[in-house]
Amino acid sequence: MGRWEYLVRVFALDKEDEVVVDYVTREYPERNWKEMVIYDPLTLEAWLNQCGREGWELVSLEPAEKQGKNGEIGRVYADATPNWARFYLCVFKRDTGKME
């Protein structure tokens, strides 16, 4: 049986991130990243594909609205209020290639 290693990251939807700009310019040349809405889902797609190119497989994704000063992330639940997310806690795994 192989061994797994894990990667846990919080990605913020940010259209001006360098990884996002490079990805959108390369993969969607008909789109101008400057005209994207600020929290466009393509920003998350860019990061997920970057991790995939490095051999990481996404195994979990949890949305969150806020990230605290100590790194914690959370959701705000209020009746009759939309819960928009711009932070995503992502867990990835990849096989180390080592056998037990």
Write the layout of secondary structure elements.
Blueprint: E1 2-12, H1 18-27, H2 42-53, E2 57-64, E3 66-67, E4 73-74, E5 87-99
Antiparallel strand pairs: 1-5, 2-5, 3-4
Helix pairs in contact: 1-2
Descriptive labels:
single chain, 100 residues, three-stranded antiparallel β-sheet, two-stranded antiparallel sheet, 5 strands
Give the SSE string.
Answer: EHHEEEE
Helix content: 10-25%
Q: How large, in whole angstroms, is the Cα Rg?
A: 16 Å
Contiguous uncertain segments of 5+ residues: none
The averaged pLDDT comes out at 85
Provide the structure class. Answer: alpha+beta
Morphology: flat
Strand tally: 5
Number of helices: 2
Distance between the termini: 6 Å
| Number of discrete domains | 1
The profile of the biggest β sheet is: 3 strands, antiparallel
Major sheet strand order:
1-5-2
Beta-strand content bin: 35-45%
Structure explained in plain terms:
This protein has 100 residues and is α+β, with helices and mostly antiparallel strands. It has one domain (2-99). Helices cover 22% and strands 36% of the residues. It contains 2 helices and 5 strands, in the order βααββββ. The strands form 2 sheets. Strands 1-5-2 form a 3-stranded antiparallel beta sheet. A two-stranded antiparallel ribbon has the order 3-4. Strand 3 and strand 4 form a beta hairpin. Helix 1 packs across helix 2. The longest helix has 12 residues, at 42-53. The model has no long low-confidence stretch (mean pLDDT 85).
